């Protein structure tokens, strides 16, 4: 089958059209004909730094498509179902004609979205959901009188995190954004307040008269760390998803802060007992999209999947200027 992969770690031009075998289907697996994918920072990081083991490595984690085969232990899906999901970082990726995925991390595609647009939701939705309800241990409907600061609010995770926080909790949300278009975007997503992360965060947040109790550090955490420690409330909660080279966590001790890593692939990597919560939350997100409670975060339709279009999408991702999500349709 056709796929887009790379033979050697490096720049985006390493991505090329390859022929690989159709994936084997395990007991809990679905074989999905891929109709849409999206590009995430993890794709760029892996392509740039991780050498393939043997043959070409196929990346891509977000996908939407149609089930063409089911494993012997599958109970929740059948051939012909339209699905969306974020895959497993330890398995071959979704930039291919067909993809095998564990049914327990798969949701039913929103009926109101096309395949490409639906593919823009899973990874970011799972990440945002787990930050709110696993890392921060908030309850749905909770958070009254508390405030969430989202650093990097206009990116893919920030865009859906703001919406989920405003829809499912009573948190006040402060989002950071530095350009006119990103400031407008985070307001559209539902942010109550917007501050500029290129400016003095401490002064701007102080001017609001609000002390954040929770901080979602989505980008440039090492750069913003001193300000995060300064503005957060004592016994506050910090969750981060990026890869800071060095953090002085001792600075968090005086305020007795809790620091959490969020990595949405953990459940699939380790086959945790609660792995199926990702299926359940994706089905919730799908229903909320169809009900109009959540809105799509896709801003860029990058064309039909090919080596050229995927290279261009990776380069756009590396620019750091993507608002929301960029997606491609299948081969």
UniProtKB/TrEMBL annotation:
<dbReference type="InterPro" id="IPR020843">
    <property type="entry name" value="ER"/>
</dbReference>
<dbReference type="InterPro" id="IPR011032">
    <property type="entry name" value="GroES-like_sf"/>
</dbReference>
<dbReference type="InterPro" id="IPR014182">
    <property type="entry name" value="ADH_Zn_typ-1"/>
</dbReference>
<dbReference type="InterPro" id="IPR051603">
    <property type="entry name" value="Zinc-ADH_QOR/CCCR"/>
</dbReference>
<keyword id="KW-0963">Cytoplasm</keyword>
<comment type="subunit">
    <text>Homotetramer.</text>
</comment>
<keyword id="KW-0694">RNA-binding</keyword>
<keyword id="KW-0862">Zinc</keyword>
<keyword id="KW-0521">NADP</keyword>
<protein>
    <recommendedName>
        <fullName>Zinc-type alcohol dehydrogenase-like protein</fullName>
    </recommendedName>
</protein>
<dbReference type="InterPro" id="IPR036291">
    <property type="entry name" value="NAD(P)-bd_dom_sf"/>
</dbReference>
<keyword id="KW-0479">Metal-binding</keyword>
<keyword id="KW-0560">Oxidoreductase</keyword>
<dbReference type="Pfam" id="PF08240">
    <property type="entry name" value="ADH_N"/>
</dbReference>
<dbReference type="InterPro" id="IPR013149">
    <property type="entry name" value="ADH-like_C"/>
</dbReference>
<keyword id="KW-0007">Acetylation</keyword>
<dbReference type="Pfam" id="PF00107">
    <property type="entry name" value="ADH_zinc_N"/>
</dbReference>
<dbReference type="InterPro" id="IPR002364">
    <property type="entry name" value="Quin_OxRdtase/zeta-crystal_CS"/>
</dbReference>
<feature type="domain" description="Enoyl reductase (ER)">
    <location>
        <begin position="10"/>
        <end position="328"/>
    </location>
</feature>
<comment type="similarity">
    <text>Belongs to the zinc-containing alcohol dehydrogenase family. Quinone oxidoreductase subfamily.</text>
</comment>
<keyword id="KW-0614">Plasmid</keyword>
<dbReference type="InterPro" id="IPR013154">
    <property type="entry name" value="ADH-like_N"/>
</dbReference>
């Amino acid at each position: 089958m056709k796929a887009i992969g790379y033979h050697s770690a490096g720049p985006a031009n390493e991505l090329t059209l390859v022929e690989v075998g159709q994936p084997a289907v395990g007991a809990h697996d679905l074989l999905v004909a891929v109709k849409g994918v999206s590009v995430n920072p993890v794709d760029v990081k892996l392509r740039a730094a991780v050498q393939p083991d043997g043959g070409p490595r196929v990346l891509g984690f977000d996908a939407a498509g149609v089930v063409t085969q089911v494993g012997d232990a599958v109970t929740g899906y059948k051939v012909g179902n339209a699905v969306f999901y974020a895959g497993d970082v330890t398995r071959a990726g979704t930039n291919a004609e067909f993809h095998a995925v564990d049914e327990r991390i798969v949701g039913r595609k929103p009926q109101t979205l096309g395949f490409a647009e639906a593919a823009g939701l899973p990874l970011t939705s799972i990440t945002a959901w787990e930050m709110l309800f696993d890392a921060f241990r908030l309850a749905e409907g909770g958070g009254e009188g508390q405030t969430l600061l989202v650093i990097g609010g206009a990116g893919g995770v920030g865009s859906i995190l703001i919406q989920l926080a405003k829809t499912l909790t009573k948190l006040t949300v402060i989002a950071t954004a530095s350009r006119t278009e990103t400031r407008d975007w985070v307001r559209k997503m539902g942010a109550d307040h917007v501050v500029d992360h290129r400016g003095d965060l401490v002064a701007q947040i102080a001017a609001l008269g609000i002390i954040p109790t929770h901080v979602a550090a989505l980008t440039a955490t090492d750069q913003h760390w001193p300000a995060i420690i300064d503005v957060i409330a004592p016994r506050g909660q910090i969750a981060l998803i990026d890869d800071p080279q060095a953090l002085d966590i001792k600075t968090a001790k005086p305020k007795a802060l809790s620091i959490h890593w969020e990595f949405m692939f953990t459940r699939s990597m380790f086959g945790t007992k609660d792995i199926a919560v990702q299926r359940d939350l994706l089905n919730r997100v799908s229903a909320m999209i169809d009900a109009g409670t959540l809105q799509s975060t896709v801003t860029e339709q990058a064309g039909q999947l090919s080596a050229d279009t995927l290279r261009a999408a990776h380069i756009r991702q590396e620019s750091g200027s993507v608002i929301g999500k960029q997606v491609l349709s299948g081969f």
